């Protein structure tokens, strides 16, 4: 899955030679060293065919008063109708009890031993699935979104929407909890697909989650009722499959318009999702809410001055725009909501919605 590396190589467009202060005969040893390094940097940028305008040097920073949650809250309050994009991964669903199904250590794979998989991830490979769909559905049975309730993080995102601040929500999760939390589909981009719908692999006939769930819970591999041949596969993205068109289309359009980016509960290791953080405007502040710092600029990008990755070690708010808040997503969201003055509203929303879902689950079991 998601093997596409997001290579945005630009045309070779070397900087014009401009006579700088160093052309005067007054340079110190340090200046000479700097200009030497600068030459190496420019040479490498040219060799790598990277446009100098992709580099960090022209960025506008200093938009946050301070590089803290308070600095961010000030910023959000001061921009009318602040356009916020949220990007999330499995970390926002952990407290809902959803296992990390891609990890062989999650325990989900124990039931697959009888199938003699060549390696655990084969279960999510399209070619393998076409030959042998049974192991996937055995796994799916354990993680079909049943009775899972969205977390406070999901409801925080819904609050952003209710307040008119959510520009778009990008999720790596396939657990459909954003939908359960009441986020409208037009605000939602499920980058790695979803269990919410499925399609026949042969004739592409569409199927609902309810229909697939019924078969899977009865240990039946869902077969298409239209062509009576194809297997019906949930629309989650397998290894060897393209990401959804909606993701490719909207990711290109959305990010440059964002006023603020929130990244939550993702290790930012999977491309092209991870590189979305670089698509916002150079002056757009970015907040990471996660157990640990991730997605940082690497040494080579730093040396070349490339705008790639998050930078958390800026000394002052004039030289940086990224803030990391380390901890679990629900706590981070509640803190942010408190400081925005929505703390009680968020708690109420979680309570009310969880009670509603509990009642729904109960009546579903009774019928
Ligand atoms: Zn079919």
Automatic annotation (TrEMBL):
Top enzyme class: transferase
GO MF, one example: NAD+ binding
Residue numbers spanned by region Disordered: 1-38
Record has Zinc as a keyword: yes
Cited CDD domains: SIRT1
Organismal lineage: Eukaryota, Metazoa, Ecdysozoa, Arthropoda, Hexapoda
Alphabetized InterPro entries for the sequence: DHS-like_NAD/FAD-binding_dom, NAD-dep_sirtuin_deacylases, Sirtuin, Sirtuin_cat_small_dom_sf, Sirtuin_class_I, Ssirtuin_cat_dom
Deacetylase sirtuin-type domain location: 62-343
Name of this chain's protein: NAD-dependent protein deacetylase
Acidic residues composition-biased segments: 26-35
Species per Swiss-Prot/TrEMBL record: Odynerus spinipes
